[in-house]
Task: inverse folding
């Protein structure tokens, strides 16, 4: 056996070294070659009340460099802990502040899109539908004359498609699928109002005409995650399942939603499904129905949490604030970059990957 | 023999039962079944909750420093990982004595096993902090195994039941390095026709591995195991496992 040990160890070392050679280099792009830049930041609804810090200030600085081609996508949970309360509630002014600080992070000329999350729906409470409508009104009032909005709006589930150059961005309100209280009323007037119609509309919208179009689907809840809501980080899967929280991947309600969304993607996989919900940064292999799954829910430094590396993980950053940036190149190529801020004054580009090769 | 002693008893020293074969060293049941014949493994790497995963495994192990004869075993297995977490597997293989002194030619036997490994707690920010690696993941679990080796010597069968408490710590970004430690206990069960003495052994398995080695489903582990009982020596071996991702 001793005779076998040395060759085996050498073979392992060689194999390992081969893996190391595939390190992704940090790409610097010519600004003129970039068609559209999408910034992904989620769960940013707990900004510091004293000062604007990372990651929002860094994100703003990057977007301000070329606002005309920048889209900032807030991936839900825009107001912790329970969305916008009714006017007159003690939490009302602070909730307003939380929305305002994010709207102000969108530089003039850039587009801001807020996707609803479970906390925005009054943390899944009975006031949820009204809370999300109040948030939509707040967002509009803070950005007069600017393109900053909540999508989908009015408590509707979506999907809502937006075309910008080669990009088709499809927004969904996934909390609508999981909410246990009222999700529509006499003023809803939503183009889709059932699981089946949402899935059918999504199936159509992820199949745009033109082969060169890049499809990115944005929602709050991820399709897979190695974080707390994926039944990792603490007591694991089978035991958490007994809790039955619809916010967790292993619950039946969540699974029904994810199965429906994936069924809409089959045959024409979007380039990426981007989400927040878990307070970490994860780049994941999507599988057959979607090429990449991005979890960018580390927008609030005070809320960052654990994530484990899974077999599907390309990159995982736990317990650090940060955001992701997608650069859609003219002609061909989509570059993902991940920025991570472990401290108040420290942060850097930590990962990059061509999601669509140039 | 009582049912009770059948269930929870009986380590045996096989060649002792073969008259005239004193030159061949005894093999404990816990050395002849997968728990002692094959190297320990780390807890499975987490994966998406959307799928169940099939995998295969090849293991080679050698038990050394137990006297004249070393024990060499090779086995293959099939694993099933449920929802990216706990894993259930079956194993079949062959073990033989090197430098076998048996006059009857009883120098090898087949071995079979079934094993369930449950991930109980994953995450571990404290351990990650201690290691200075934010991406480090610790997993604490438990594993339960049953082993069977027929005709280890003459008509004597070996059966074992084992219980372990594995701890795995995985770290690094590009190369996923995992170290693991598994203290446990193994009971030799009497599954032959003779009276045997009840035996229980404690063991400690440890090792290192590289997960996702070149391919996303490929893991390689080097394992070491010490059984705290008599002249059982040290088990050392290599495991290569492959999980099929959809």
Result:
């Amino acid at each position: 056996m001793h005779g076998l040990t040395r060759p085996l160890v050498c073979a392992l070392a060689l194999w390992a070294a081969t893996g190391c050679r595939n390190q992704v280099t940090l790409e610097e792009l010519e600004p003129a070659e970039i068609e559209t830049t999408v910034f992904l930041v989620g769960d940013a609804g707990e900004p510091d009340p004293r000062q604007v810090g990372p990651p929002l200030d860094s994100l703003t600085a990057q977007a301000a460099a070329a606002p005309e081609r920048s889209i900032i996508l807030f991936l839900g949970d825009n107001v912790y802990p329970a969305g916008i309360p009714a006017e007159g509630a003690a939490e009302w002014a602070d909730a307003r502040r939380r929305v305002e600080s994010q709207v102000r992070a969108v530089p003039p000329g850039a587009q801001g899109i807020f996707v609803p999350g479970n906390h925005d729906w009054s943390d899944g409470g009975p006031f949820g539908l009204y809370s999300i409508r109040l948030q939509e009104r707040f967002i509009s009032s803070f950005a007069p004359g600017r393109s900053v909005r909540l999508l989908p709006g009015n408590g509707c589930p979506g999907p809502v498609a937006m075309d910008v150059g080669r990009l088709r961005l499809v927004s969904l309100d996934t909390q609508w699928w999981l909410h246990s209280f009222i999700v529509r009323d006499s003023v809803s007037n939503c183009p889709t109002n059932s699981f089946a119609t949402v899935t059918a509309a999504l199936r159509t919208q992820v199949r745009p005409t033109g082969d060169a179009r890049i499809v990115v689907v944005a929602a709050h809840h991820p399709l897979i995650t190695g974080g707390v809501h994926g039944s990792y980080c603490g007591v694991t899967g089978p035991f958490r399942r007994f809790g039955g929280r619809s916010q967790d991947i292993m619950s039946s309600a969540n699974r029904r939603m994810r199965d429906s969304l994936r069924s809409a993607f089959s045959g024409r996989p979007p380039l990426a499904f981007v989400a927040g919900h878990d307070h970490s940064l994860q780049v994941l292999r999507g599988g057959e129905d979607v090429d990449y799954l991005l979890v960018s829910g580390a927008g609030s430094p005070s809320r960052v949490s654990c994530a484990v590396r899974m077999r599907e993980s390309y990159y995982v950053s736990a317990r650090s604030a940060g955001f992701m940036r997608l650069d859609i190149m003219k002609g061909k190529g989509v570059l993902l970059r991940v920025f991570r801020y472990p401290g108040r004054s420290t942060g850097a580009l930590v990962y990059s990957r061509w999601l669509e090769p140039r | 023999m009582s049912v009770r002693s059948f269930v929870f008893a009986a380590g045996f020293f096989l060649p002792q039962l073969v008259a005239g074969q004193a030159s061949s060293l005894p093999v404990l049941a816990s050395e002849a079944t997968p728990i002692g014949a094959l190297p320990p493994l780390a807890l499975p790497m987490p994966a998406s909750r959307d799928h169940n995963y099939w995998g295969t495994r090849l293991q080679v192990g050698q038990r050394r420093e137990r006297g004249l004869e070393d024990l060499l075993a090779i086995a293959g297995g099939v694993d099933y990982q449920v929802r990216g977490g706990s894993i259930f597997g079956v194993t079949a293989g062959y073990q033989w004595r090197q430098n076998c002194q048996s006059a009857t030619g009883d120098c090898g036997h087949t071995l079979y096993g079934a094993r369930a490994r449950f991930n109980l707690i994953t995450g571990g920010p404290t351990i990650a902090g201690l290691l200075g690696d934010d991406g480090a993941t610790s997993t604490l679990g438990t594993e339960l195994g049953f082993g069977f080796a027929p005709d280890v010597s003459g008509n004597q069968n070996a059966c074992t039941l084992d219980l372990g408490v594995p701890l795995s710590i995985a770290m690094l970004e590009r190369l996923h390095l995992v170290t693991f430690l598994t203290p446990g206990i193994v009971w030799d069960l009497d599954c032959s026709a003779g009276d045997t003495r009840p035996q229980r052994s404690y063991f400690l398995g440890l090792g290192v591995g590289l997960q996702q080695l070149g391919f996303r489903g490929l893991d390689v582990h080097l394992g070491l195991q010490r059984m705290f009982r008599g002249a059982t020596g040290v088990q050392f071996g290599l495991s290569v496992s492959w999980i099929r991702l959809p």
Summary: The radius of gyration of chain B is 19 Å. Chain B has four helices and eleven strands.
